[in-house]
């Protein structure tokens, strides 16, 4: 269980997160919000790659994550929004390399590399250089690496960005399948990525939680004929001409 309290984050004078509070239990959490809402900042902090403001509390099963240090980081799988891939590495070698960084034994790494790359439908090309992969294939390698070492907490920052509908479905199914017995936090601009698989949705707006709950709870405030998550999301972004986030399936982010 991950418990977050009084989480604030300033970048200089700019405040990106305001008193964020949330308790994450096993399940899939869909993190929605327009550009600049604070999604990546939140994931960077949870993955212990970015320090929050003093006084912020993040506890893993009751213990502060800063006290747990590497013990906590070993439980985390993270796919950052921007990540460099080694173009001259093959997919297999990249997975083995990340495994080594995570301290996973070679035997386990081999097995998991085969399994995870099959799951993202890259088994046939695992010995080809990543440099020749399409954007979607690279994205799938990155999702696969986040699951190495059977993490208990998985953070996926826009795993479906730039993917075509079929590839998005592959990623969505994989998240759904691997989400058992772990906490999975997925940020996206595409409501349909998480609508059917998330146990809970968190809608962020300007560094604050605008709404959270199950899809059912979030749509329950709408008239029956308008009960979609997309409509529930748009309730929080009524301003005209301001992008409430590219939540249309056809728009890219
Ligand atoms: N390194 C930084 N220095 C200064 N400001 C930053 C930095 N990183 C993020 N910010 C600001 O913090 C706010 C939250 O940014 P963040 O990247 O967390 O949003 P996001 O929800 O992930 O957006 P997107 O959907 O575009 O990825 C934004 O106003 C952004 O400009
Ligand atoms: Mg982001």
Automatic annotation (TrEMBL):
Gene3D superfamilies named among the record's database cross-references: P-loop containing nucleotide triphosphate hydrolases
The ABC transporter domain, residue ranges: 2-231
UniProt GO MF annotations: ATP binding; ATP hydrolysis activity
SUPFAM superfamilies hit by this protein: P-loop containing nucleoside triphosphate hydrolases (SSF52540)
Cross-referenced PROSITE patterns: ABC_TRANSPORTER_1, ABC_TRANSPORTER_2
Keywords tagged on the record: ATP-binding, Nucleotide-binding, Transport
Family: Belongs to the ABC transporter superfamily.
PANTHER family: ABC TRANSPORTER, ATP-BINDING PROTEIN
Name under which the protein is recorded: ABC transporter, ATP-binding protein
Species: [Eubacterium] siraeum DSM 15702
């Amino acid at each position: 269980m991950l418990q977050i309290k009084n989480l604030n984050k300033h970048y200089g004078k700019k405040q990106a997160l305001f008193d964020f509070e949330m308790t994450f239990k096993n399940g899939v959490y869909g993190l929605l919000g327009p550009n600049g809402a604070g999604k990546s900042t939140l994931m960077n902090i949870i993955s212990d790659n970015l320090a929050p403001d003093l006084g912020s509390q993040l506890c893993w099963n009751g213990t502060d994550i800063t006290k747990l240090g590497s013990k906590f980081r070993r439980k985390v799988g993270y796919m950052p929004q921007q990540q460099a891939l080694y173009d001259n590495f093959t997919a297999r070698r990249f997975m083995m390399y990340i495994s080594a960084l995570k301290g996973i034994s070679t035997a386990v790494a081999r097995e998991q590399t085969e399994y995870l790359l099959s799951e993202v439908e890259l088994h046939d090309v695992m010995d080809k250089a990543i440099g020749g992969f399409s954007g979607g294939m690279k994205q799938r390698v990155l999702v696969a690496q986040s699951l190495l070492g059977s993490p208990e907490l998985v953070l996926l920052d826009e795993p479906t960005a730039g993917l075509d509908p079929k590839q998005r479905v592959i990623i969505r199914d994989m998240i759904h399948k691997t989400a058992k017995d772990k906490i999975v936090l997925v940020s996206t601009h595409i409501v349909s990525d998480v609508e059917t698989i998330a146990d809970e949705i968190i809608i962020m707006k300007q560094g604050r939680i605008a709404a959270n709950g199950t899809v059912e709870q979030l749509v329950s405030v709408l008239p029956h004929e308008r009960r979609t998550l997309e409509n529930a999301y748009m309730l929080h972004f009524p301003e005209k001409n301001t992008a409430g986030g590219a939540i249309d399936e056809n728009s890219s982010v």
